[in-house]
Amino acid sequence: MPGRTPLLPPAEAQMPSAVSPIVDLDTGGVIALWAAAEPTGGPGGAPAVVDVARAALHAARRETSLPLVLRISAQSVIDAGSAGLAPLHEALRVAGRRPREVILTVEGGFAPGDRRRLLAALDGLRAIGYLVALGDVGTGHMPMDLAADAAPYLMVLSPRLVGRVPRDPRAEALGRSLAALARNVGAHVLVPEVSEEAQLAAVRSWEVRLAHGPLLKPGPSGRVHVPLPVPEEAPIAGMLGPRVQEMLLPAVTMDEHATAEEAIEAFGSEPSITSVILVDEYQRPRGSLDRSRFMLSVASRYGYALHGKKPAIRLADPPRTVPKTTPAIAAMQVAGRDNERVYDDLVVTDEMGRCMGILRVSDLIRQVSGQPGLAPSGPLNSPGRHQRGA
């Protein structure tokens, strides 16, 4: 039976083909709107600035605060620069939208000599507040190493490549590789134009969570029906219990470039703070400062002199992240993987990998121990271990 999630009121349910919901395949939730501009002047069939502005106005008419994902040609970005995108800026202003609510998907080819100009233009768009994506990945004429230099927030696979899946094993192998590449360069992955359940199954096997297409269009009721994945033959019996979002606590976050001195001030302001999470510009966790270990490092002889004015991330551990939908037992399994950090706070993330809050392992133990039938295993319940700071 397909999962259901509300998208829009019934009056707004009949979307034109140019606007479609982007769906998180794990939760069934709609997290953004894909607003496809009809190209009239963009090189190579990609939308030009005026086309993008028209698409932005059209999508923004809907009574929803969901982010917009817009396409624009790389050549238009190069030729216009951030200042030349005035029609788009004005369209968003009229629609009451801010640049940080828009992801600009750059696609189409460009001359090798224009590479620096393109990268400079992308930096300019980011400075204004836009999130930047690379589109048509897999069949477009954009060099793949641009993903390393452009640092995109999102990579959108080519609809033509997706259309060959799963009938063409080579295309499916390429899609899987591109999805892995995107994750490894720190970008989210979006698969467009998913029209069949077989394609959706392949996309899920690539560990991709974001997709849109005819299969995921809202029905007359305004709901999106997401086909459920085929259950595994041997499901993990231990993944039970409430989801971690039910035990969420606010996180103390700081910019990843914050100094150790600033982190000391944060810990000193409130004795109950057990961790400080260092995040990037998109609120994605990049490091975790455990109170005990961090304060011990800076309180040691010459510790403050060595670390005080330097970035706190030098003393941080990799964040132990769990998606907000993770069951309690699965979260305990994550906590028990590292014997030295068993009781470190877990960082709970949303669909886009952004920090939502923290989960204290002591709370997790109390929650699991209070429910019959849930039996944690591993370091968390081994003899001789005692809870820290419970």
TrEMBL record:
This is EAL domain-containing protein (Putative c-di-GMP-specific phosphodiesterase class I). Gene3D superfamilies: CBS-domain, EAL domain. Coiled coil: none annotated. It comes from the Bacteria. Keywords: CBS domain. Residues 370-390 are annotated as: Disordered. It holds the Pfam family CBS. Residues 247-306, 312-377 form the CBS domain. InterPro entries: CBS_dom (IPR000644), CBS_dom_sf (IPR046342), EAL_dom (IPR001633), EAL_sf (IPR035919).
